[in-house]
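Our preliminary data section would be incomplete without showing what the modeling component actually yields. Below, a chain of 193 amino acids is followed by its predicted structure, encoded as tokens that our downstream tools consume directly.
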Amino acid sequence: MTSMEPLRRRLLSDDNRVSALAALACNPHLDRRLVSDLLDHLHPAEVQWLRTYDDAVPAWLKEAAVQHKASPAQQQEVPRVLTDEELDSCEDPEAVMQSWLDAVKNHRGSFFDQVEYAVIRSRHRTEPLVRQVRAHIVLSYFEQPVAADALVRMCGDDPARWHAVAEALTSRSQSRFEETFGQFIDRMNAQPA
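Predicted structure:
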């Protein structure tokens, strides 16, 4: 098992779409074609997981994933997330990280969340990049004061503004799940102090 294998397994087991498809494929009464037709709706990273994940994916579905040819709409590359040391040698680390965010913009799942976490963990992150990451990821990231720094700049020593932020954080609805950190900050700035 490679050093990345435990991470791949954890990511797959956390991904609802791939796990659900694997569970459907285990149903002997379900027409296999119905399941294999769903491969067209997966991201290439998810199809790759089906090919390599051993425990929960039936052999016939693994084989279907191996034989699957991505449609032109699916053929975008899965971004390779670089370490900060690798980004050090890039001419424009911000552009590289922007390409990651662009590649996962319309996808959800554990791998795609990891791209957003890679951006906010990086010492090469910039405010424009962080503003594109979903707010719940930035706000829940505690290893570095990414959100705290932005909130201190926004609220300063104004108790009313801090109260408005606290209220927004405790009453977040499910519809705000896709809100970016930039949208959250803009929404908080638009409220009267």
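Residues 1-14 have pLDDT under 50 and may be disordered. The radius of gyration is 20 Å. Preliminary results of this kind motivate Aim 1 of the renewal.
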